[in-house]
Write the structure tokens for this entry.
Amino acid sequence: MEPDSPAEASFAEVLASARNAAGLTQEELAERAQLSVRALSNLERGEASRPRRGTVDRLAAALGLTGLDAERFAAVARGRRMSGDATGPAQLPTDLPDFTGRIAELSRLTEALGAGDESGVHIVVLGGGGGAGKTALAVHAAHLLRHRYPDGQFYLDLAGSRSGGVDPASALSGFLTALGAEPGERGENLSARIGRYRTALAGRRVLVLLDDARDAAQVRPLLPAGPGSAVLVTSRYRLPDLVGARHVPIGRLGDDEATVLLGRIAGAERVAYEPDAAARVVAVCDRLPLAVRIVGARLAVRPAWTVSSLADRLAASRRKLDELRVGDLAVRASFRVSYDRLSPPAARLFALLGHWPGHDVATAAAAVLAGASEADTELLLEQLVDAYLLESPELGRYRQHDLLHAFARELLTDELDPAQSRAALERLVEHLAATAYQADLALWPASRPPFPPPRTPGPTFDSREQAATWYRTEWAALDVLLRRIATEPGIPTPALTVARLASLINLYPFLRGDLVALERGARRAVTLADRAGDPLLVGTEQKRLGFALLEQRRPDEAARHQELALAAFRAAGAKDAEAGILNSIGRRLMYEAGRSTAGRPDRIAAARRSLLDSLAAARVADARSAQVTALGNLGQLEHEAGEDDAAYEHLTEALGIARDLGGGQFEAAVASRLGTVLAGLGQPDAALAEHTRAVRITEELADRRAEVSVLGEFAATCLVLGRPRVAAEHARRALALYEELPAGARRVEDEVAALTALGRALAATGSVATAREVLRRAAARLDELAEPAAAARVRALLR
């Protein structure tokens, strides 16, 4: 009899096994059983004398043991075997000494196998993709639970993922032989053999571990019939038709679990010495147990390698799966087994998903890649889910983890017909461009994209929020796709469509105020537009790049791109575009005039000329949105120059056009500026009405960045009107919203304006010390921005 046979297992072994199966630490079990940790540790090491009956009962209760399990636990504690206990086959493979983690899955397995429940056979399917560690977990769990099944533990590799697998008749012969029965004659039918197998197991409590099952039909004949037994099945497929089974899917390890596993294989001290590098290695392995085991083994036999050197090597590899193999272990080969069993349409779709750069893909995008209807594509996607080659985190979306995506990318290059691959990518780019076109119309209805709509219309959006949700969901994938096309040579795509897509999606970071993403996107769009040979589109993106740079207080860089855009628009005779860039140039000159008193009158005059030229060009082209921006900036310029009557004329005209255009974006900004001017003209009620309108519009649009700006302007107007307490309320609200904005969407000018208004309001209400502290914060922020003139103006308020 083998030393780990359940009949000969010591109480120390049974106690430790039961605790691990329950997912408890020694400290947790000791607390539940009202024992000291030292006493429990001595029991598990076999160093204590035979435990008292009360101790055994408390341990059994704390472990949740009932029925026969509790009786067997008590019998082993007394050094006895229960009557009727028998020895049987002990076929479990060796448990991995470095098995790591899976506490939650072990707990679910223990519960699903029904501790002490004599109601029937308990069946659990451990499902997961290649390399997820199904067999390792199943074997580990079986060892932990073997004391429950004293009449034997059976194991069989059904080879379901390899060339057809073991047929049930052969499997039954092997089990019957292990039970001491005749394996059966060659002509014996399957039903008869099943009957003899179940008869041999009658009255016994056994555990049957069936590894790598192909389908439910391969498993059903091997199920015992008697109560108290259990069957643990592992499979790369979901086996939904295995009636009565509980399903425990397993995926990737957690970050900490994967790092611990790496250390147990490669050396714990070695991994702990380079924690950041270890985290990078685990990330490249996508926390897939097989991948972690492979890189750990490579490190273990290469003591001269550092963890950092391996992390760098993995990161630099263009074909990561080449690095994830050692001996007869290979991630690619593991994935290949599942891929080769797919139907041809499902296999083709899996490879085509390599074109999609995000983790999640919508059914609609997958259908475009497949060139099929959404209904037919959904059936194929569900086949991939059943084979654990995809996950479905929510209805209508499918997820592919990084290493599987790398495998799909390889298939695109190595196996898929190049014409099919190229056609699929072209369909995808055209679909995304058509969708982005419609999303931009919904997000910014006052201004259309500077090119005609795609030939095939995209899906429409019922609201601005619906379009913003599409961008939020797909933004990362769009960004990666365009970066890949822009930087990787030889990717066959329709150049003009790609360039237009790159231009369209830049509206999203513009509206979010994410200037870093906008600058990156505009530079990329310039490159793609130039590659497509579209000078007008090049100019559009040069203008957008100039905007992003100016908003980041880089006026000299912005000026270069603005001049390039102006030249491109004039060469193309595009008056509406020329109006837009002249307005941008005027804004830059206003900004430069505000930074320094030196040359200020000349810059203001130049800004006025540029804005008036912009307005004239916009009127010639009947570009109404360009008229609004030019008039709005002229109004601001005249107000800052002390010419409020002229400012009022410009802003009232701009507001009328903005209301005609709709959408709200232009109207909020113009109304806020007009409120400031009206206050200066001695019209308090009208001023408050315009500011209130501006705040309401930004709230309706959920445009928090714009709301911060208009609240700061509202606070400043309330100070002019002698309402410091109301001013303080608006300023505090602006600052609170500012703190909630993403870092990339914050305009420090808005923070400074709100701080300055708050400081002045506090001073006016007698809170002088607090006011001085707030104003110092505002001046310090301006110092950080290298804005000495503005900082000096704020410090003047401290005197």
